Amino acid sequence: MTLLELLDLMKKRIKLVIGLPIVCALLIGVYSFMFMPDTYTATTSMYVLTNQEQSAGNLSTDLSASQMVANDVTTLLKSNRVRKATADDLGLKSLKDFEIEVTSATTSRVIELSVTGTEPELVAKVANSIAENVAAISQDVMKVEAVNIIDAALAPVAPSGPSRPLYVAVAFMGGLFMAVAIIVVADMLNTKVRTADEAEEILGIPVIGRIPVVKGGR
C-alpha cells in the first residue's frame, strides 16, 4: 500500500480518523483530572566531607577518594536500612508510596535527594529524615564524619505532576495510530474486487466494458 492509497482510505473514513483520537484524548483527560492525584516533590542537598579532609583541614586533599565516598553515600541513600529508619522515625509502615530519586555528579561531592508523594508536608519530612539518617548511618558504616545538609527540604507549594497535558497528547496520538491501524487491517481483510485493474489482475483478461452505478434510478 502506497502513501497515496493510505491517504485515500483515511479520507474515506475521516470520521474514524478524527473521532477515535478525540475519544481517547477525552477519556485520558477525564481520568487524569478526576482520578489522578497531584504529586509534590521536595528536594534536599548534601555535601560529603571525608575524614581525611577534616583532619588535614584541606578541602582539595584526595578529591578522587572523596568522590568515591560520595558515590558510596549515594548508594546508602537507596538502602533499605536508611528507608526503614526513616519510616520508623515518621511512624510510617514503609516508604513504598514515595518516589525517591538520588543524583550525584561524578565531579562533585554534592548529592541531591528528591522525594515525590501526594502530601507536600510529608514529602519534605521524608526528604529531611532520609538526609539525617544517612548522615548517622554513614558514620557508623563507613566512618564518614560529615554528611552536611546544604539545603533542607521545604514543603512544595505547587504540584510537580502528573503532566496531564502530556498524557492527553499521547492518548490523542495513540488514538490516531489505532485509527490508521484499523483502516489498514480492514482494507487487507476486504477481499472485494473494487477496481477494473483488480479484476484484470485476478482474471487475467482485459475489461472491455463497464456498467455505471446510477443512484436513485430504476
Ordered list of secondary-structure elements with their pairings:
Layout: H1 3-12, H2 14-34, E1 40-49, H3 51-56, H4 63-77, H5 80-90, E2 99-104, E3 110-117, H6 120-142, E4 146-151, H7 164-189, H8 196-203
Antiparallel strand pairs: 1-3, 1-4, 2-3
How would you describe this structure in keywords?
LPS_length_determ_N, alpha+beta, cell membrane, Alpha-Beta Plaits, elongated, 2 domains, 55% helix, Bact_polysacc_biosynth/exp, four-stranded antiparallel β-sheet, membrane
Summary, kept brief:
55% of the residues lie in helices and 14% in strands.
Could you explain the architecture of this structure?
With 218 residues, this protein is α+β, with helices and mostly antiparallel strands. The protein has 2 domains: 3-34 and 162-203, no CATH class; 40-151, EIF_2_alpha (Alpha-Beta Plaits, 2-Layer Sandwich). It has 8 helices and 4 strands, in the order H-H-E-H-H-H-E-E-H-E-H-H. The chain has helices at residues 3-12, 14-34, 51-56, 63-77, 80-90, 120-142, 164-189, 196-203, and strands spanning 40-49, 99-104, 110-117, 146-151. A 4-stranded antiparallel beta sheet has the order 2-3-1-4. The longest helix is centred in the C-terminal third of the chain and has 26 residues, at 164-189.
Summarize the main sheet.
Answer: 4 strands, antiparallel
Coarse structural class: alpha+beta
What is the name of the CATH topology of the largest domain?
Alpha-Beta Plaits
Label the overall shape: elongated
Percent of sequence in beta strands: 5-15%
Order of helices and strands: HHEHHHEEHEHH
Query: CATH homologous superfamily name of the largest domain?
Result: EIF_2_alpha
Count of individual helical segments: 8
Taking all Cα atoms into account, the compactness measure Rg is: 31 Å
CATH architecture of the largest domain: 2-Layer Sandwich
How many strands appear in the DSSP assignment?
Answer: 4
The side-by-side strand order for the widest beta sheet comes to 2-3-1-4
